Recover the amino acids of this structure.
């Protein structure tokens, strides 16, 4: 049993003003975070001083301008392109990992391979790519389409996209560039590998015009929980970010993914599973609940009702009394399981519309922990030690205060228990996460 | 006559190890520049301390791996994605402009608009986009194509691409984001503008998910000299980088572009024309020529012959004696005017193959100035005062030394003559260049 040396991986999931939908209205929140680079410098340095493995950025290739009156009351319309932002943050940090989301739906693999290879070079081996497929028609409409391709086709494209990117990342062997001024030989032509990919979705000749990554290649992260998503992750992901509501869900997902790995010749340690955690920390339980209630009370009913309408599958609830019960709902084409669970919850607990939207306003499906440093540490420790997680992605309700509180209150408790590092040991994101540096494909074949 | 207050714009055109094809073999050159972020930090700070308007990065979406033995002897295969690199440099500089090339051929306008808007936010208004079309099949083959679309179609796409990007940059008015915590209003919905573009090449709904640029919008730069290129530039460019060999060429181009502007309702000052200058500086003329000769002698014949073969239109010269005459050439489909000019030059001056490739090894068609600070300043002053240029893009033969020598020797002479600033006055790239901050399209219409 090596439990004493096994430690958490921790990501700081940064999102403009905060993960709670009303986080921007918190008195201490940086309300202009989405347009404020200095704010991100502060957060990145804060997370690095606390020795987080990485900062993580989500992405969307658009603005959901369909519910305009609701949108105008949330801080979700102005944000930075994540790779561009992380490149700037790379220049003002030294050790922390830098993980950006880029969709396979609206980009070209050559460009994505280049940008992450560049980020990895600039940061000295700290880049990670969160590979996603896009799921909103609003985004598709910014890219010459009316609607999205269906789920299966999106995942098929994503899988081929991944393989092209990894192929391009192996264009050069580690010691290709000799740069001998005397002989005039700049690179060893035998160590250049031209991909010549011809697949269903992509034809990409290569080679990539960026040197091989300091960490072999950037870390590949994924977040899909569907069957297609799990299959792709089991073959290709090195880190999985995932949303769970309960320990049982987390444990089942963890066992499922780790169980799929041998089929791809992979070991359980080759993939780190990191559920999202939405923490509200107090010095007492009452203080934590009071803080949470203060956030919840700031959810504008227009925003809450629109959010709920979207989550339950596009049914418009704006005509109903916000303090009345959920009406009977017609069958829809939306994500049925989530709708079903929510409506069942509302019936069982006799929730009003307001109470129901408050349930989803913060953690967006992730585990919400409202408590003291000890009770939050207990919960993380259980998930970690009992087969639910290899680490966590911390989703602060508002920034910078929500992250500061987690660092000041919860991290010392985790460290006392030996669950989280007190300093960095390695220099690259792979080293932080305990992932091996991959050998060049040619070296593997030889 | 306001000549005394009119001053140069100066760009520092950074290119890995240097603009001379053998620059990387210079004893002081940073041979690993293409994979060395710290090198770029040093160059950016050097150019900023010298008060250059901007640093400028070219780009290629591929590696020309067709002449492998030649390619392996040049420093042209490993470089950084330019926007990603400039974002990192934005974080460690304060005032200098940041101009990156991104092709309209292999990207999507929504992504390009986002990345430059983000760079502009991060840098506090210092971003510029050099809009180009790609001209190599090697690049096309990294993006699902065998060959490029023809010249006219590429420019048609570029023009529409430009209009979409500018439309997206006006998604938000300057004061859209009110972020009032009390009322819960994050933005003023009346100040959000959805583009809904439907054109021949693109359908892009918008809005952009980045706030309006600190400088209204990033500066649009172009480099095309063809008829299609000039027409697009006259309508859309704010800066034009261009290659000329002689003052007469420069003057004719300058007059042509400035003369086209009124047709688009634009003033001569709305477009800054900046030819590329390849300087080799010595304390005496003899020293400058000696330095240049030392660079020329380092051109590997394999590289020189391959370069010449490409430039004269794809005719393979590798079987001929490098110290013998240029052979009779068949008609080709390559760029005939350049081939014709070069062959005529070789015949007139009775040049050998080696002598001819040395003529094109450095400045790649740009003006080559080999001399003292006084003679170089004389030449720049003439171009500037006699209608050939509004400024120059300085293409150092090798880095960092070639740029350092220009700064140490030529800049003081230009300053003595009142031709170049001694300090920054403004904070944005537009302010450096003397370009007005564009009002929002809606404000213009109102």
């Amino acid at each position: 049993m090596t439990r004493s040396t096994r430690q958490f991986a921790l990501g700081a999931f940064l999102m403009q003003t905060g993960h709670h939908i009303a986080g921007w209205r918190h008195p201490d929140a940086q309300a202009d975070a989405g347009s404020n680079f200095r704010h991100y410098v502060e957060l990145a340095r804060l997370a690095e001083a606390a020795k987080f493995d990485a900062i993580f950025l989500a992405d969307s290739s658009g603005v959901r301008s369909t519910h305009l009156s609701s949108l105008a009351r949330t801080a979700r319309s102005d944000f930075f392109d994540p790779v561009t932002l992380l490149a700037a943050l790379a220049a003002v940090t030294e050790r922390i990992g830098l993980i950006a989301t880029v969709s396979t739906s609206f980009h070209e693999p050559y460009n994505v391979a280049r940008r992450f290879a560049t980020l990895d070079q600039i940061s000295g081996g700290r880049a990670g790519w969160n590979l996603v497929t896009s799921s909103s028609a609003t985004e598709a409409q910014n890219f010459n389409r009316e609607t999205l391709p269906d789920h299966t086709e999106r995942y098929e494209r994503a899988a081929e996209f991944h393989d092209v990117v990894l192929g391009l990342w192996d264009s050069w062997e580690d010691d290709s560039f000799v740069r001998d001024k005397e002989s005039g030989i700049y690179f060893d032509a035998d160590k250049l590998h031209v991909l010549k990919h011809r697949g269903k979705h992509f034809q990409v000749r290569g080679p990539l015009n960026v040197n091989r990554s300091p960490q072999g290649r950037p870390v590949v992260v994924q977040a899909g929980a569907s069957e297609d998503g799990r299959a792709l992750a089991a073959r290709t992901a090195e880190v999985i970010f995932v949303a769970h509501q309960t320990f049982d869900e987390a444990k089942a997902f963890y066992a499922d993914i780790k169980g799929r790995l041998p089929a791809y010749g992979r070991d359980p340690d080759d993939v780190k599973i990191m559920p999202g955690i939405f923490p509200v920390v107090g010095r007492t339980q009452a203080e934590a609940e009071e803080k949470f209630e203060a956030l919840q009370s700031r959810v504008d009913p227009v925003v809450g009702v629109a959010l709920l309408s979207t989550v339950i599958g596009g049914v418009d609830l704006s005509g109903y009394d916000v303090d009345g019960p959920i009406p009977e709902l017609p069958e829809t084409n939306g994500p049925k399981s989530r709708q079903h669970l929510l409506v069942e919850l509302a019936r069982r607990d006799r929730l009003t519309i307001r109470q129901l939207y408050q349930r989803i306003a913060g953690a967006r499906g992730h585990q919400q922990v409202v408590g003291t440093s000890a009770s939050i540490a207990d919960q993380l420790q259980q998930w970690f030690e009992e087969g639910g997680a290899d680490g966590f992605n911390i989703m602060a309700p508002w920034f910078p205060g929500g992250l500061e509180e987690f660092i000041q209150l919860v991290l010392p408790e985790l460290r006392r228990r030996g669950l989280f590092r007190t300093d960095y040991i390695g220099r690259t994101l792979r080293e932080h996460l305990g992932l091996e540096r991959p050998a060049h494909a040619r070296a593997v074949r030889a």
Q: What stands out?
A: Chain B touches chain A through 80 residues (CB under 8 Å). The mean pLDDT of chain B is 93. Residues 259 and 386 of chain B are 16 Å apart (CA to CA).
